[in-house]
């Protein structure tokens, strides 16, 4: 596997209670997407930034081939599903904690596909994959085109990305990046699409808001997800019993 693909652990606190998983977007990279260009500050890993705020977390980044040409071709939907399935499979390998995702751009589509895929894996041979859906407590979407998950929508987004010659040019429209939905929070960041996930310091605009959300989720997730795990185990056990009863008829 290429060093820039798959899950990469950036930080592990002592006895971590939650996993923070960052997923980059179109034309992105598992580390460069989150790193400032001039000072090379990688806020997900820098000891003065996110790890100092989430000392009881494990912080990871997920890499995949996000080249425009690869993801916007005829098989774009299949490619995204493949990346989503890989994300689920790699997370299952070490599933002891709740998950909070940080998604940039197309990364949000990959995560949504991953959760939909995980939620459907309840048959006996693949029920271990269901744990990712159960374990996910929250998702921070940063510039994700929620109204552009179709092939046409992705193609439109790709063409805007190619034509965006300045960092401040809008690539994802507001009603797509921040749709009004129940049980969600909306907020704006004073950056262009490319720079909204790069933070120079604790005082960078938007950093405190993003970290505050992650800290809140980190506090609330363990108890909530524990209850979900119990209910999921009961549901799967009941499903297996019903299947066995049907075979006996």
TrEMBL record:
Q: Provide the Gene Ontology terms for cellular component.
A: endoplasmic reticulum; membrane; mitochondrion
One family from Pfam that matches here is: DUF676
Q: Which UniProt keywords apply?
A: Endoplasmic reticulum, Membrane, Mitochondrion
Q: Primary place of residence? A: endoplasmic reticulum
Localization, UniProt: Endoplasmic reticulum; Membrane; Mitochondrion
Domain DUF676 intervals: 20-151
Specify the domain of life of the species encoding this protein.
Eukaryota
What the record says about family reads: Belongs to the putative lipase ROG1 family.
Q: What is this protein called?
A: Ribonuclease-like protein p/mrp subunit
The record lists the organism as: Setomelanomma holmii
